[in-house]
Amino acid sequence: MAEAHQAVAFQFTVTPDGIDLHLCHEALRQIYLSGLHSWKKRFIRFKNGVMTGVYPGSPSGLLVVLVGYMSTTKYAKIDPSLGMVTKLSKHLPISKYVTEEGQRVVGGVLIGTGLWIAVTFVMRNVLKCLLSWHGWMFNRHGSLNLKTKIWLYLDSARPLMDDEQYKRMEGLAKDFEKNLGPRLQWYLKLKSWWASNYVSDWWEEYIYLRGRGPIMVNSNYYAMDFLYVIPTTRPAARAGNSIHAIMMYRRKLDRAQIKPLMVLNTIPLCSSQYERMFNTSRVPGVESDVLQHMNESKHIAVYHKGRFYKVWMFYDGRLLLPREVEQQIERILADKSEPQPGEELLAALTAGDRIPWAKARSQFFSRGKNKQSLDAVEKAAFFVTLDDSEQRYDPENPVQSLDSYGKSLLHGKCYDRWFDKSFNLIVFKNGTMGLNAEHSWADAPIVGHLWEHVLSSDPVRLGYTEDGHCKGNSHPNLPGPQRLQWDIPEECQAVISGSLKVAKALADDVDMHIIPFKDFGKGLIKKCKTSPDGFIQIALQLAHFRDKGKFCLTYEASMTRLFREGRTETVRSCTSQTCDFVSAMMNDKATLNLLKVAAEKHQDLYRLAMTGNGIDRHLFCLYLVSKYLGEDSAFLKEVLSQPWRLSTSQTPLQQLDLFDLKKHPEYVTSGGGFGPVADDGYGVSYIILGEDLINFHISSKHSSPETDSHRFGSNIRQAMLDLLDLFQLDNKANNK
């Protein structure tokens, strides 16, 4: 394939009369338009930088202050500066270019500017104080000291330990609180004064980037397409609309036109994680990976049937339209060339262990055509896989079809996704699509925000023609995609095979099960005057106890984006109150009051986590400080070594205005999921859609004799129905 651009900037030939130079006007025009686009983008970034730099003030506010000040001084004969302008004027030099009137004007500008800066500074700090107060939830930030957090940890650990184990842990906690803890806390407090966020940089480095195992399954997660409909069965058309929608989202992001999410329509959530959504790749290292982010990228990388392509997203100084993107994808799909030696399985390097990939990258991809091609992939805006399999929800075979679809998005064939990219857009042969996202640069709600934009733009705003193509016309002179060239020696191919073997074993072990729970949704749960999230978490605890006959340490992710550069905190959902309720349910003695007490406890923990008063990130940072100081803490070591055998996360639907599920229930999404965290545990992701649907994504490992995703799914369904019955039975009793 690999068509080259038809025009080059200039050509020359040597003749007897000298050098004959022929300028190519089309190429120069493209250079001019490209430069114009680049400078427009720089200007927009500069303007946004100025606007955000003076927020909550504004340049127009400065103009109003200066005009008002000068008008008051000149026409009303009032000096608001109380003589400061006169005093300042005396220190300004007088020359033939600066009159006394000019002195007063310059002095007035300086005083007015100073006043504007002072007002802006005061407004900024008042706003900061207001936003740092979380009493609107229930508790002011920073009100929990180290002693209280240690008590909260012991409270969360109590239902998982017998008396002897708990007494031992209590002793370790008291010793830590009395001796090493205060010293570690002092260092951590010092960091909090200096750094913009005392957790996030360490969390990114030690939880994600320093992991040496595969990121496929273990870290990356996925997002699914619409559940019931496929807008077109033409994969090139689906890719055309989706890629264009993604690039339009990037344009809005670059121009700071995406509004921050607001809590209660008043309090903004930090948007810093959006910064590395595009043009970002995780680069492997021997000891630690790094995130490589480019300020600008004008192309995407595409994989199809073992071949890699570079596709430019701009032409004539503008972004390609959907039909033009479809045209490029059609060219790739029509290409009959064979993969080069080692090319087909190359991406398996990103799916296996990190150290072999880091060494191979340094040895085989640091120069020549391999480096150029690898740069094209790693510096692309994002990665696209044109998958040659067909995936979708099949009403006649819902279980197997959804399970296969989820597994494909999570790991594919282990060599047809570039797992290091910030995200992969995956378009299947029948037009279904999805995302696979790398986790270190941001959390799932950030990718979810992009995906909601894409799904809402695709069939509604952009649409398709009657025969399933993107709307618009193809471009007669559009240069085709560039086939990337590789020279992969046999030694490197052996490393690729080793990574593929590791990745295949991991992928084959994944037991994935997806449940569209349609019996009821948040509408009925809210009528029971209970938090939908609390209701589901308690149902998960009941289901897990029925599945394994015991309680386990449970992880629920909560966002901390009320703080600058905030990521997540852990809600420990397995509480004493929840265990009391589950035990009562198992003995047919459960009451509605026990359920409500457990739900309220869960909500309290969620509020604590959101407002910075969770315990797990704090203990994690204390542990790191102890390692930096060379101190051993038996308490911290025990806390951080306990496995999360039930890891859960809710996928929020953030832009409700984009989806009218009452008018268009067919456009309901499937949500997304992730792999199991513990070898003998479950990973559960769920999304609450509209009033009547909750989708569960369950993962575990076939190799564990203790887990079975389908069995656990049946237990979740039954637990949800049993909790609802408890409310209905109580209502019947009250009616009597």
From TrEMBL:
Mind telling me which InterPro entries this protein's record contains? Answer: Carn_acyl_trans (IPR000542), CAT-like_dom_sf (IPR023213), Cho/carn_acyl_trans (IPR039551), Cho/carn_acyl_trans_2 (IPR042231), CPT_N (IPR032476)
A Pfam family reported for this protein in Swiss-Prot or TrEMBL: Carn_acyltransf
Q: Which EC class, in a word?
A: transferase
Pathway, according to UniProt? Answer: Lipid metabolism; fatty acid beta-oxidation
The record's subcellular locations are: Mitochondrion outer membrane
> Where are its TM segments located?
50-70, 105-127
**Any one of the GO BP annotations:** fatty acid beta-oxidation
Its catalytic activity? (R)-carnitine + hexadecanoyl-CoA = O-hexadecanoyl-(R)-carnitine + CoA
Family, according to the entry, reads as follows: Belongs to the carnitine/choline acetyltransferase family.
**Know the name of this protein?**
carnitine O-palmitoyltransferase
Species source reads Cyprinus carpio carpio
